[in-house]
Structure formats: C-alpha cells, structure tokens
Amino acid sequence: MKAMQLVTTFIGSSVLMLILSGATMAADNLDAGIAWDSLSANQQQVLIRQKDNWANLPAARQQALAKGAARWAEMDAAQRAAAAERFKAWHELPAERRAEIRQRYREFQTLSPEDQQRVRMNFAKFKSLDEKQRAALRQRWNQLSPQERTQRLQLLRQRRLQR
Q: Are the C-beta atoms of residues 36 and 3 closer than 8 Å to each other?
C-alpha cells in the first residue's frame, strides 16, 4: 500500500510538472507565494518532492503547482491513469517536438477567447471525423507547398475578421 502511494505521488508530481509547464507562464504575474503549511494535506502529498525547495520556487510556480495538485487530488484512479499515460507519451516525444508543442501552446494563449474557442471547436470537428477522413485532410494539407499553406491561412484569417 505504501509503495502504491509513493508511485501515485511520483506520477502525480511528474504529471503536474507537464500539465503546469504552460500554466506557469500564464501565472507569472502573480505576486503572492503560498506557504507550504497552507497547502491541503492532499496537495502536500502530491507535491512532497517539492517540499524542501518550495520556499525557493517563484510565487507563480507555487500557484500553478498548488492548483495542479488540487486538480490531481480530485481525479479518480482512471483519470490519473489516463494522465500518467499522457505524461509518458509526452516524455517519449523528441525534445524538438515538445518545444514545438510548447510554442504552439504559447501562441494559443495569445489568442482572444473567441479565437481559442474557435480553435477548440475546429479541433473537435476534426476529431469527430473518422480516421480515413482525417488522413485525407492531412494528406491534402501536406501536399500543399509552404506558400499555398500561407495563402490558405491568410484567407481563413481574413474570413474570420469579416465575421
């Protein structure tokens, strides 16, 4: 039982680091740090590996980690397993791909809430297509030259602005 708690805590801390890598950037403007003792018992359990260095972490990092730990504590076993699987897949990506994903996330964060919602809706539409349809769309996109891709994106932006 103790070993399972340690594994859960380790996976939880690791998943939180991944989840919060982008959230920390968004929280950079927060001034107030969080005292370790003010964290809930569940948050402390998830963040136990951070305890010795907690006071040295930037306030924004503390805020983001505390928020993520609270989310992790609310997950059931299936949600935690799914998060651990996503974390594993993330770490199996090449460093360049992870950097690209982080950059795209930062770009997404600069979008207006309306544009973010539009991106989410378009992604949901894409995911609702069957695999054959998605593959066909990917193939069509990949066959475009960089110039054609740029033109298509500009056209989409113009249409969006006209709405």
A: no
